[in-house]
Amino acid sequence: MTALTGTGGLARLILRRDRFLMPVWALFLGLMPLNFVAATEELYPTAAAQENYARTTGESPTFLALYGPMHDTSIAAIVAQRSGFIPVMVALFCALTVIRHTRTEEEAGRRELLGATVIGRGAGLAAALLVTGGAALAIGIVLAGGMTAMGMPAAGSIAFGLQLALAGWVFTAVAGVAAQLTEGAGAARGIALTALGGAFVVRMAADAGGEGNGLSWLSWLSPLGWGTRLQAYGGEQWWVLAVPAAAVALLVAAAAYLTARRDVGAGILPPSLGPADAAPSLSGPFGLAWRLHSRGLYGWLAGFAALGVVWGGVAGTVQDMVADNPDLEEIFSRLGGGTGGIVDVYFGTVMGMMGVIAAGYAVSATLRMRAEETAQRAEPILATAVGRVRWAASHLVFALLGTAAVQAVGGLATGLTHGLDTGDVGGQLPRVTAAALAQLPAVWLIAAVTLALAGLVPRFSAAGGWGALAVAAVLTLFGAAFQADQWLLDVSPFTHIPKLPAQDAELAPFAWLTALVLVLGAAGLAGLRRRDMATG
Amino acid sequence: MTAPTSDTPISVSGLVKTFGRTRALDGLDLTVRAGEVHGFLGPNGAGKSTTIRVLLGLLRADAGTARLLGGDPWKDATALHRRLAYVPGDVTLWPNLSGGEVIDLLGRMRGGLDPRRKADLLERFELDPKKKGRAYSKGNRQKVGLVAALASDAELLILDEPTSGLDPLMEEVFQDCIRQERQDGRTVLLSSHILSEVEALCDRMTIIRNGVAVETGTLADLRHLTRTSIDAELAAPPNGLSALPGVHDMRVDGNRVRCEVDTSRLDEVLRQLVSTGVRSLSSRPPTLEELFLRHYKDEVPAGAATAGEESVR
């Protein structure tokens, strides 16, 4: 078949280009569930404790929705449930890999270079699908081998491995189709990831009500649901494999059909066009910054809302988990550092974590300013009547108000979910939201450090900004658990934020953290005004 | 240096800019007079873009003075930028903004643009304003930058190799536009290494090498400082010609002689030729390309600098 001439060579090219990335991801994703085995055994050493966990926490609606159904009470089944998000990551990895080696190559014009050599029309697609499908299989084999080696049942381990592999295969094929549809790789990624998001939401809806609920049939509509229907470690249903096999065959045939009928570089869908004239809102640096940041901000807002729903939902089960396991109570109170009820301590902890995540947004929004500069996109702006400080402010407003918005949404979603759970929306909503907003001075301080670096030593702004975040994150998330010294914990600004709602809102830390933010921010802006802008 | 007046929108003297150990600008002088199209010539890395970035207040000079439209390009940047428009040599666009949006945005940030002029320029440059930034080719990205700058009513245009990536037809449109700008009384600083473009458009030009201006003047001024090509068919083999000062690269083929003559020595050389008897004669002033290559082919900067010192001051 001449359409496939050169597939082998192209497959080797992909393997050569991904020789580090692919093995690292395959090992990471394949070995991650093995970690859960040891962790679960440590927390729930006896069969009775494991069964208790499986029947309570494991079957709470939050866990069912997030991770999928619990098929058994064995440690293997617990681990298989806890690994419920790994098929999503495998699918994500596969979809991105396929698009990177098909549509991205075409968009960059490298496909054209190869197309002029002795290479068949379908070879590029075939090579990407084969290599990526192979990587998904490798992840499954690593996992199945590892689980069996750790003494888990062999048949279940194979089914567990296949659960990962088939998620990878289906989304390899989905991405193969998506890559044919659009001219831009970004839009193709969007289509594939929307399909993945849809599959996740459908599976969540199917599983949240527990096994055999009225919506269970929905999981047949989700490729991620097919994996859970295999029932690894819970009476494997091998015939289910026919469904993903048929889906993959159909999708690959569709991709092959489309690739044979379109021009190189073109998509099946026409490229999207923009307006010929700018809207009145797009008339200055702030209008431009909104266009550059808004899509990302919406994503973060949606993510924080989802996180809030999950964390608010988990709050109700915290009481149960602690009843199961007194060690957890100690860990929580050490992390939360409070003396209030265990649920309030829990809120203090997760709002701190939310703050650390929001600081990630703050760093990325601040560095966007620097990225605009180094990509030479700031130059035409600064050659107009826009001054440097105004230009910088247009990006920094997202580091300041954007983080306030995501924390507010995260806090509201957490408080609302917990309030609905406990029938006390009026009481929970304000206090949990306040706990989320209390993190802001610490969040802003990380942004201010990034800004100070961008103004004074721009070369180190990315490394320094992400480095500051990493230090704060490690100390906040793990410092207490590893019983780090207080002076070390004090390095992270989040340590100084009172743990609302369990603790009182002391004003002093807010005041001096805010003062520090202002000093660093002013230093950064002063540096930005004085220094040379990056040249191309 | 002369006091900056409205007669000299750009006046730069002794400008020095270093990046680490590299001296990008090493005492550069540049004067652009009001209403002229001034060519700014030099190969890549000569310091053209660095000069322009200092003029735009994006880089801070280490020494020397620079005046732009009567103000300080660093301190008064924002106010001065209302009165100028700039096109970089490599226009980068935001991937999710259409070309039309970028044109309007840049125009509005400069203080407004004329929609009719925008429509007219879009048509002349055959640019589709609805495409997104990521979909434009190199040449079309340059067109976006050019339309944005030309649609404004700035009194000064600073163009840094604006036509890189444009096809010859569009180059022609660009040249028409610049001639129109000059008629309208605008001043243009046109950095370029396309010599035919500079030759066709510029009233005066400055040639820059290693961060120093080596020549400044009109094309006629520059030609005067250099050599004329002579190709003559004589009655007899040339005699005594090579002994004359100012004769270079002489090649003799029987009665035919070809040589380069310092333009200031042309009289003596012609007298010598006439004394032998001329059957046919063609002489050609040097093209800008020859002028330019002369400054860049010989690797001894001293020779170039000497020529520069004799130049129009």
Question: Which helices and strands appear, and what pairs or packs with what?
Answer:
The complex is a heterodimer of chains A (536) and B (313).
Chain A: H1 7-17, H2 21-43, H3 47-55, H4 61-67, H5 75-82, H6 86-101, H7 103-108, H8 110-115, H9 123-149, H10 154-181, H11 185-207, H12 223-229, H13 242-260, H14 285-324, H15 326-336, H16 342-374, H17 378-382, H18 388-422, H19 425-437, H20 440-456, H21 461-479, H22 486-489, H23 493-496, H24 507-530
Helix pairs in contact in A: 1-9, 2-5, 2-6, 2-9, 4-11, 6-9, 6-10, 6-11, 9-10, 10-11, 10-12, 10-13, 14-15, 14-16, 14-18, 15-16, 16-18, 16-20, 16-21, 18-19, 18-20, 20-21, 20-24
Chain B: E1 10-19, E2 22-32, E3 37-41, H1 48-55, E4 63-68, H2 77-81, E5 84-87, H3 99-110, H4 115-124, H5 138-150, E6 156-160, H6 168-183, E7 187-192, H7 195-201, E8 204-209, E9 212-217, H8 219-224, E10 227-234, E11 247-253, E12 256-262, H9 266-276, E13 278-284, H10 288-297, H11 301-310
Parallel strand pairs in B: 3-7, 3-8, 5-6, 6-7
Antiparallel strand pairs in B: 1-2, 1-4, 8-9, 10-12, 10-13, 11-12
Describe the structure.
- The complex is a heterodimer of chains A (about 525) and B (about 325).
- Chain A has 24 helices and no strands.
- By secondary structure, chain A is an all-alpha fold.
- Chain A has 2 domains: about 1-265, no CATH class; about 280-530.
- The longest helix of chain A has about 40 residues, at about 285-325.
- The mean pLDDT of chain A is about 90.
- Chain B starts with 9 loop residues before the first strand and ends with a helix.
- A 6-stranded mixed β-sheet of chain B has the order 5-6-7-3-8-9, with helices on both faces. A 4-stranded antiparallel β-sheet of chain B has the order 11-12-10-13, with helices on one face.
- Classes of the chains: A mainly alpha (about 525), B alpha/beta (about 325).
- The interface between A and B is large, with 39 and 47 residues.
